[in-house]
Write a structure and sequence with these properties.
two-stranded antiparallel ribbon; 4 strands; two-stranded parallel ribbon; alpha+beta; 28% helix
């Protein structure tokens, strides 16, 4: 996730839907110059529904790209600044089941989030 994407999630998902029953797993992956564990804003996603992780070795991004979750990614690629939505009933074995919405990158794909992800929150 990038700082702009995190700010968008803060404003349009967490703040706009304070009672939505959702769980956010934010995985910070250093992809650009200046991305570092110490430089990230630890307050931007401060919400009890959010778990944040640092993936300095890009393991999660590589895994998501190789598995092509929701059709996003390819072997050799790294998924970052992306979103994935799964139902609570999703199972995670070889790869997660029941993808509801997926997109990348977050900040340049705001219309995708607005059309595919935000409507999922209205029913929760």
């Amino acid at each position: 996730m990038c700082a702009l994407g995190a700010s968008w999630v803060r404003t349009h998902v967490l703040d706009a839907h304070p009672h939505a029953k959702l769980k956010v797993f934010a995985i910070w992956i250093p992809m650009l110059a200046g991305h570092s564990r110490s430089a990230r804003d630890r307050t931007v996603l401060a919400d009890p529904r959010v778990n944040e992780y640092w993936d300095g070795d890009r393991i999660a991004g590589t895994w998501f790209a190789e598995k092509r979750i929701g059709g996003l990614g390819d072997p050799g690629w790294i998924a970052w600044d992306a979103y994935y939505a799964f139902p609570a009933s999703s199972t995670w074995e070889a790869k997660p089941t029941g993808v509801l919405a997926v997109g990348s990158d977050i900040i340049d794909n705001v219309s995708g989030l607005d059309h595919r992800f935000i409507p999922l929150l209205r029913g929760s």
